[in-house]
Amino acid sequence: VAPPDLAAPQIRYSSELDLGTARGAGAYTSSSARWHQDALNLLKDYAVQVERCSALGTGAGDVGVNWCATWAPDSTAQVAGIAAALGCEIERFEAPFDQMSKFSARALLALLWTAATTGKMRLPGAVIRGRAVLTFDLDTGLCTAHRETLDLMAEADTGRIQNRLSATSLATFLDVCRRPNDVAPEAWEKAVRERALDGVSGTAFVDIQPNESDSEGAIALLFFGVLSTLSLTLTAGIFLS
Question: In whole angstroms, what separates CA 72 from the centre of its chain?
Answer without folding.
Answer: 8
